[in-house]
Amino acid sequence: MNRRQLHLPLVYDFQPKDPEDPYDALAVLSGRSVSGAVLVRKLKKLPRSKCRLVGYSKEDAEKVATEFNKTWETSLRVGVNDCHHYTNANTTYLSRSSSFR
User: When comparing pLDDT for 53 and 34, which is higher?
Assistant: First the structure.
């Protein structure tokens, strides 16, 4: 792994386990829960929009986020436990880390 690969930004997301399943789409639209999945991807570059810097960590932020992901309830329900709730909870968890600023 070269030095550039070590600094690739990570994206964390929470979405339906099968986002193309029409039955899941209907369930989500009708307010029911579906099975969700937490995704982690490395980006080749920073996005130009819909991205914000939350802070810096002296700890291994990837490790802290992975610990958080293990505790996240993966039953997805829009407005109750969706990608917005996931992002807010993950950010709060990371910012409560002792050396995160």
Answer: 34
